[in-house]
Amino acid sequence: MEIERKFLVKSIPDNLSSYPCRHIEQGYLSTKPVVRVRKDNDDYYLTYKGSGKMAREEYNLPLTKESYEHLLSKADGNIITKKRYEIPATSGYTIELDIFEGVFDGTVIAEVEFSSVEEALAYTPEDWFLCDVTDDKQYHNSNMSKKSVFTAQ
């Protein structure tokens, strides 16, 4: 089960380069249900995600590089590329700060994962977060993969 909230941010932390960073590339084979392939640094996965916004089922299966590349060539729409910084918060959570590249260059989304829905609902956002976009479909990567032009609101 994946339980997460998503936020737009007011500003990016000044010391961003001091945090661990992963390079992510992903393509969507289906958006209903969500089936994607992802390269995460040198790891490759096939992921199935159930329906839902804040809480939903998620299953990851490992792939070889060759399988990933073969399946990525079959992906529909945009290939999503981003840098993901892992920032420890004073609350004890890890903020995954996604800085998008390519078609979505300039889009920045912070995600925070939780152990329960109750934890997620009780979470107080960081001061540098702008607004909660967990329920806004346009910020789900699977929907972004289908957009020809992205306009953040």
Provide structural commentary.
The mean pLDDT is 94. The protein is globular and about 40 Å long. It has 153 residues and is mostly beta strands. 12% of the residues lie in helices and 46% in strands. The longest helix has 8 residues, at 65-72. It is built from 3 helices and 10 strands. The two termini are 29 Å apart.
Question: In a few lines, what is going on in this structure?
Answer:
The chain has 153 residues and is mainly beta. Helix content is 12%, strand content 46%.
Percent of residues in β-strands:
over 45%
CATH topology: Hypothetical Protein Pfu-838710-001
Number of helices: 3
Distance between the termini: 29 Å
- Assigned CATH class: Mainly Beta
CATH H-level superfamily title: Hypothetical Protein Pfu-838710-001
Q: Largest sheet at a glance? A: 10 strands, antiparallel
Overall pLDDT level: 94
Radius of gyration: 15 Å
The chain-level structural class is: mainly beta
